[in-house]
Amino acid sequence: MRRPRVPQREAMSALARLLPRRAPGWLAWACAALVVALAQPAWAVRCLTNSGQTSLTEPIGNVASYPTDAPDGYVIWISAPRTTDGYCYKDLGGAGNLNIVDNIYFYANPDGKNPAAWGLEIGIRYRGIDHFGAGSRPGTGVPTGFAVPPCSQTDFNAKRCPKIPVSITYQVVVRKKGAWVQPPGDVYTVFQFDGEKGLNNTNPSFQYKLSGLQNLKPTPCMVDVTVTPEPGIVKFGQVQSSGNGFSPAVPRKPFSLALTKKCSIAVRVDGYFETSQTVRDGLLVPQSDSNFGIGIEDRNGHAIAFNRQFVLTQMPANVSYQNIVLDAVLKSFGAPKIGPFTGTATIRLFIY
């Protein structure tokens, strides 16, 4: 005889009540152990800023456009270099937590969202390398090079486990991946600092969040740039050294950025001089022992920083071409090293 159908919620409730009586003893024990295991967090490290902050939210800013037909991998936005000064420490006692070296990682996308569904890819630039595809599970993070050493249970109970100072400089890179779809939310958690076993879900560890995702929108406009002298090489020729500097004191060579706008709308064009070489006091250092650096200045003598976005020009709707003249300059830190030198930077354009 067919039993009367029980509504789904009632059926689940009945099963929960009957399971301890009808299941074998070992199964009931296993279920109980599973509940305990799931309830007991295993993540042992916490990272905070020196002021105790658990997050930084950085706004993208105004509407950042990119060409509608831009290929996947096209860089839409890069944050300024950010440095998180703080400390990491053992946050949870017990075997398997205290007795291991906890390497500190960038764990990407801890909220488990899918930027590719919005036509975006969001990565972490660390020590000159862009990391896309990092994850939030153990073994998928980006190592920072910092680590929290083991600590005994006795020291943990007495709150004597060390707080390891960290100073981590990074950038966030947003690039195109697929077709643009308006993100459902405006804030995205890019990463969380944590230890060997993954995310600390018990006590918040430092997170970097990006706001303004809905400001990233494609536009049917392209601005091309040509660097002259071509092919984008600025030659200083022979430069005279004089004691702890140069003669003249600040050698300079002009170069220009020729901008061609392929649309009939008004846009703001931002520039970004990107380099993977060492930057000291705003100057690109050719070699560690060169004792001088290469800088970029506008025609008013104002320095333009490397690896930082800056306003290059405004192009009205009826203007399709502009030529921006800049200067490459040499500045010494002491007695310059004699010999040939090279420095490399790439100019990126961002359209607003």
Automatic annotation (TrEMBL):
Protein's GO biological process: cell adhesion
Highest taxon listed in the record's lineage: Bacteria
Descriptive protein name: Fimbrial-type adhesion domain-containing protein
Pfam families, A to Z: Fimbrial
Annotated Fimbrial-type adhesion domain residues: 217-349
GO CC terms: pilus
SUPFAM superfamilies, per the entry: Bacterial adhesins (SSF49401)
Ranges that cross the membrane: none
